[in-house]
Amino acid sequence: MSEFAWNSEVADQPEVVQNEPEEKQLDEPAASAETLALSVNDFSALEEKILRAVNMVKRERQARTAVEERLAKAEAQLREQAPLAEQLRSEVKALRAERDQVKQRVERLLGQLDALEL
Question: For position 118, what pLDDT does the model report?
Fold first, then answer.
């Protein structure tokens, strides 16, 4: 299929006629064969680049899908852990408040001990 399209493109191109000496015009079939070979090489290189680009896009899509799956799992874990985290925050807050109360009671007792020594 690609060969057919390429051949039709070559057929559609106008031929360039140059005023060259007779010797160069005799070598024209060899020169056009070199040009044709070069064009085929260029086409093959382009085809290879396109295939590499397609493969790269496939790999990137697979990587993106994997990342999206990991993200979904991480979000699910976060939703599961959120209530526990909130509970732990509440406990820490309560423990800090209790610590402050104990600290105040100890300071009051120390103050009473200091008053007794006078």
Answer: 65
What is the Cα–Cα distance from 83 to 96, expressed in whole angstroms?
Answer: 20
The residue ranges of the chain whose pLDDT is under 70 are 1-38, 118
Handedness of CA 106, 107, 112, 118 (dihedral sign): positive
**Token couple for 91:** 């406990």
Asked whether the beta carbons of 6 and 43 are under 8 A apart, the reply is yes
**Extents of the domains making up the chain:** 22-117
Residue 10: partners with Cβ closer than 8 Å, 6 or more residues away: 36, 39
**Residue the block writes with tokens 């493109």:** 9
- Please state at what angle helix 28-117 crosses helix 2-12, rounded to 10 degrees: 120
50-73 tens-digit pLDDT: 999 999 999 999 999 999 999 999
Distance CA 108, CA 58 (A): 72
Residue 93 structure tokens: 């807050």
